[in-house]
Automatic annotation (TrEMBL):
Gene3D superfamilies: 1.20.80.10, 2-enoyl-CoA Hydratase, Chain A, domain 1 (3.90.226.10), Lyase 2-enoyl-coa Hydratase, Chain A, domain 2 (1.10.12.10)
Name of the protein this chain belongs to: Delta(3)-Delta(2)-enoyl-CoA isomerase
GO terms for MF: delta(3)-delta(2)-enoyl-CoA isomerase activity; fatty-acyl-CoA binding
Class of the enzyme per the UniProt entry, highest EC level: isomerase
InterPro entries membership: Acyl-CoA-binding_protein, Acyl-CoA-binding_sf, ClpP/crotonase-like_dom_sf, ECH/Chromodomain_protein, Enoyl-CoA_hydra/iso, Enoyl-CoA_hydra_C, FERM/acyl-CoA-bd_prot_sf
ACB domain boundaries: 1-92
Gene that this polypeptide is encoded by: ECI2
One cellular component (GO) term of this entry: mitochondrion
Record field: catalytic activity: (3E)-nonenoyl-CoA = (2E)-nonenoyl-CoA; a (3Z)-enoyl-CoA = a 4-saturated (2E)-enoyl-CoA; a (3E)-enoyl-CoA = a 4-saturated (2E)-enoyl-CoA
Compartment(s) where it occurs, according to its Swiss-Prot or TrEMBL record: Peroxisome
Protein EC: 5.3.3.8
Length: 362
């Protein structure tokens, strides 16, 4: 029998149009309509239907045949419209900074500012609920490295729009390198480990301003922050089992320490979503503010904190965290290598396919 892990790369390619000779960037691939491309290049379906076990050619034939008698020119136009629409609509939101500003800051997925002694790193993909792309992981690492050396006293991570972050961008898994899904899993595990290491080693007080719902890795790394302020609209959700995955961000260690093993298990094993008030009661969140006054109250507070002597704050942070650092790095390494295996499991691949084909949401 063909296992899902062997079938998945084929499904990816059929779904993303690779078998139909589409050469597009990964984002566009994940959304483009392969039928229109086949129609646009080859006209109406005119070959015999492949046998039931010829999975790849059958999927290609079904997609082509589904177009019926759509004229070649219309299909071509639909295809062009779809591709152009995707590139112009991606990340479209009134809250996204204009292109020129983004280029100026040097970040594509973040807006990073430094004023009043505070470096603010804002995830900036509001139309995608600030889902974290490979690029965003890289950029957050760069921004943290820069913030560790700049003259700010404290560093803040927050999100633009209605979400804090919906966690890992599940389309990350559609961009399969030539080494296949194994290579993808290995590279992702390395990136994940480096990403979390940056939080473990960050020398200044780190504050999360959780402006809305938080999912997955955006929740787990909160255990590595000094302070977590949340809007009362925020929720905290780690649906790892639902996704066939396992905890990361050192949460398998920090969450039981913060909230006790039973409450941590409810979140990390059973995917229980917490309200901001519940997360505060369990010690993951420092304080909850009404959404209507959240930004004003939090930034007033942070501006006052940023005026405290920066060296004293750094030293106090080191004293609180340093005893744990070695342990945290070991936990991070173990979680990352466990996830590398999980990403290759049928459970995980099925969950991602269900999201990508719009069959499942959280
Ligand atoms: C280096 C690799 C490290 C990996 C580390 C691993 C981390 C594990 C995790 O983080 S697990 C968590 C993964 N996240 C999810 O499973 C969330 C998936 N998203 C959803 O279920 C929903 O989008 C939602 C509940 C977050 C929001 O639902 P809502 O109906 O309010 O909004 P939409 O679904 O219409 O979202 C708007 C558009 O944003 C896209 N999107 C949102 N989140 C993600 C995501 N995590 N990955 C990819 N895309 C996401 C969504 O598809 C919509 O896109 P569209 O407008 O083009 O349709």
């Amino acid at each position: 029998m063909l296992s899902i892990s062997r079938l998945l790369p084929c499904l990816y390619r059929v779904y993303t149009g690779e078998f139909l000779d589409i050469t597009l960037c990964s984002t566009v691939k994940a959304k483009s309509n392969p039928q229109d491309h086949a129609r646009a290049t080859e006209g109406p379906c005119n070959t015999p239907k492949p046998g039931v076990f010829d999975l790849i050619n059958k999927a290609k034939w079904d997609a082509w045949n589904a177009l019926g008698s759509l004229p070649k020119e219309t299909a071509r136009q639909n295809y062009v419209d779809l591709v152009s629409g995707l590139s112009s609509s991606s990340d479209s939101s009134s809250q996204v900074k204009p292109e020129a500003d983004r280029k100026q800051s040097g970040y594509e997925t973040l807006v990073v500012t430094s004023e009043d002694g505070i470096t603010k790193i804002m995830m900036n993909r509001p139309a995608k609920k600030n889902a974290m792309t490979m690029r965003m992981y890289e950029e957050i690492m760069l921004a943290l490295k820069a913030a560790s050396k700049d003259d700010s006293a404290i560093t803040v991570l927050t999100g633009n729009g209605d979400y804090y972050s919906s966690g890992n961008d599940l389309t990350n898994f559609t961009d399969i390198p030539s080494g296949g899904v194994e290579e993808k899993a290995k590279n992702s595990a390395i990136l994940l480990r480096d990403f979390v290491d940056c939080f473990i080693d960050f020398p200044k007080p780190l504050i999360a301003v959780v402006n809305g719902p938080a999912v997955g890795i955006s929740v787990t790394i909160l255990g590595l922050f000094e302070v977590v302020y949340a809007s009362d609209r925020a929720t905290f959700h780690t649906p790892f089992s639902h996704l066939g995955q396992s905890p990361e961000g050192c949460s398998s260690y920090t969450f039981p320490k913060i909230m006790g093993p039973a409450k941590a298990a409810e979140m990390l094993i059973f995917g229980k979503k917490l309200t901001a008030a519940e997360a505060c009661a369990q010690g993951l969140v420092t304080e909850v503010f009404p959404d209507s006054t959240f930004q004003k109250e939090v930034w007033t507070r942070l501006k006052a904190y940023s005026k405290l002597p920066p060296n004293a704050m750094r030293i106090s942070k080191q004293m609180i965290r340093n005893r744990e650092k070695e342990k945290l790095h070991a936990v991070n390494a173990e979680e990352s290598s466990t996830l590398q295996e999980r990403w290759l499991s049928d459970e995980c691949m099925n969950a991602i396919m269900n999201f990508l084909t719009r069959k499942a949401k959280l």
